[in-house]
Give the backbone structure.
Amino acid sequence: MSSELQTLLGILLSALLTENFILVKFYGICPFMGVSKKIGTAIGMGAAVTFVMGVACAATWAVDNFLLIPLDLQYMQTLAFILVIASIVQVVEMFLKKSVPSLYQALGIYLPLITTNCAVLGAALVNAQAGEGFRAGFLPSVLFGVAGGLGFTLAIVLFASVRIKVDKSNCPECFKGFPIALIAAGLIALAFMGFSGLKVF
Amino acid sequence: MTEILIAVGVLGALGLVFGLVLAIASKVFYVETDPRLDQLNECLPGANCGGCGYPGCGGYADAVLKGEAAIGLCASGGDECAQRMAQIMGVKAEKVARKVALVRCSGYKGVDENGKATGAKQKGEYEGIKDCLAATKVAGRGPLICKFGCLGFGNCVAQCKYDALSIVDGIAKVDQEKCVGCMSCAAACPRNLIVPVEYGKHVVIACASTAKGSVTIRGCSAGCIGCGLCKKICPNGAITIDQNLATIDYSKCSGCGLCANVCPKHLITVNKAYSPEA
């Protein structure tokens, strides 16, 4: 297998499992806790995050490589990326509303929620700090964003199904609601730590 | 100094470019919507209860605008909402009677003056998942002897967006003042105990047991045994006994309350303090 394909596969697996945005890196915890009461909404949120992360990684890669790095302004990455992501999400929302109303109906309510999601910014910043070489290229950057979004979807759907069960079971009064949900999240995160030993290549 | 200026300039330029892009995009991707849609949405309560049968208030407003849905399906908004929607659409609306939910069970667990337990009787202790649907799935159909009794785990309470339902002495009870009649609770009840009744009607049959009288008596001290006393006393012939259960035909009922007084099980009322004169 060519080394480039190996790297791509490695990026996919690490973003999905070993470096899962939510359960290992603990980015984007607010939607993880907030939108995980039903599996349907969790899937919707996951799809929206995956979509936005892919687009945002592509856009921030361009801004970073054609504007910030040539001008030696890497220290402004965080600020510039927030600006880029927020505008991109707005434009995408308008575009979807006009061109793909069905997709807008499905993602519509989640898109504005993601504008300032730290997982999206996190993906862009991790990309920007990946350093020189193929890892920092355009394709790997976008793949990292999409795979990170898929990892987010995996985590939030898993958590939503756990929460539905937890809500229906007997638990001490003081743990009801968010406390037990946080404990459940911690246990799932602990389980995901098991993937950190995973070395494919 | 120049470094700062470059940074400021780049970020400012970036902001300006994106601002322009957004401004252009909002023109290019402008979607024309019927101004009536916003007006209709404003009339609706915005609770997205789903009582109209459409996915949320927006869905219903859309359907009304397209002429697919009738005006006045919104139970939460009531008559006022229907009239305003009719005005926007330029048609006349019929008067919408306010409906509220009724839990057809009176088996409130308590103790009578002799120290004897009243209400729905337990078959045994249920230690499973605290969920009505789950309780009906276990062998023996849950903890109650009565197959029509409210299980009291509050699936309906969890559904209610208006805080109108509560569990009182083990039975779900509707607060008629808070209830808007969206009936989302009815779908959550695995025993189909919740039905709509007209608001303000105090004469209701709060029991759903179609079992034989002797069977009903074994499970509950407040179950309809189909004795027919209410049917006999009703001056308007509004009450019929069908499958051991009394039913009221509201087109004939005058609300005199005689049936409520004569019922030996005291289940023909949701308001114990009701008097026909008031």
